[in-house]
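Predict structure. Chain length: 380.
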Amino acid sequence: MTLLHITPSYKPAFHYGGPTQSVSQLCENLAKLHHQVEALTTTANGNTELHVSIAAPQQVDGISVRYYPRWTGDHSHFSPALLLYLWKICQRFDVIHIHAWWNLVSIFSVLICRIRKVRPVVSPRGMLSPYTMQSRAKRFFHHLLGNALLQGSVLHVTSEQEQQEVAALVPGATIFCLPNLVPLPTPVHSTLAVDKNTGCFNILFLSRIDPKKRLELLFQSLSLLPLPYRLTIAGAGEPDYEAGLRQLAQNLGIAANIEWAGWVEGDKKTELLAAADVFILTSYNENFANAALEALATGAPAVLTDTVGLAEYVRQTGFGRVCPPEPTAIAAALAELAVNGCGFERQAIAEQVRRDFDPARLAQAYVDVYQKLAGNPEKP
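Prediction complete.
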């Protein structure tokens, strides 16, 4: 099959974290199944631009990628050259898969497909959640044009939670649910819940430092935790926001228990995952949660609020705890895991997760959907 993926950012734009990672992993694993995969993207990398060749196709880990300059920055990414090229070539592909929403690459790409009588796949990637739709401007645009554009597309969601959110906002839309493809780190086998040398329960937060992640709630929860612990915060964010979090930690009396590791990747990231007794994420909303899956793949249980997409998987398997977004509930879940564990050895968690989220198997599931779309563009 010939597959075109359109995304506002692509490797090596790792400023955007999980979405960049999961889109590139999907493309690469589709190519391994001997499909022709191409990607259109912009030079976006946060407040900076990637230093790459413009418009010419270049190989990025086996994928032919064309990068185009953007006229506007985060998070609009307006790129007329990309859109003009898409207008010319969009009918050449069996399937066009557009990633993200609320940016001008994605919205205009869907509009072009609609005009050119191509029915695309659209992955909102959490951009149709109640948290995102708090914006009056977004709600107005959705009712004015967005709903109609999405109704004419096939919508891809990554969790049952996201499926419910999207179905409520775009009633009657055609939706399929498949999880993200995430590169899974090497599992580390350990049965320790509390470090015997330090007596300290090691908690890991691994994500962007952003208001959406609700670290304020996590800090309030930790102030109630009745045991020695160490929280490692691995991630980066706006300096002013991070400074406010550090002051909050001081005010709550937990600053001495927190290590600010900054942005990590490669071996350092693997080391932190291996050392964690538990991974925690208390976000307002996550359509999936790549980092939580990475932690589970090393055998570390997860504590997630029920607003995180991967929470249903953790609830069903018992590989951690799912809590309401309340400090007492989160503190109680952490304390229980520290004392009793989650009932599974790390090795058992890691092996099951790696089976359930095997990239080759998931990529084939995407291909199965694509083939139905290519054979019948009106219905997946």
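Summary: The chain is about 40% helix and 20% strand.
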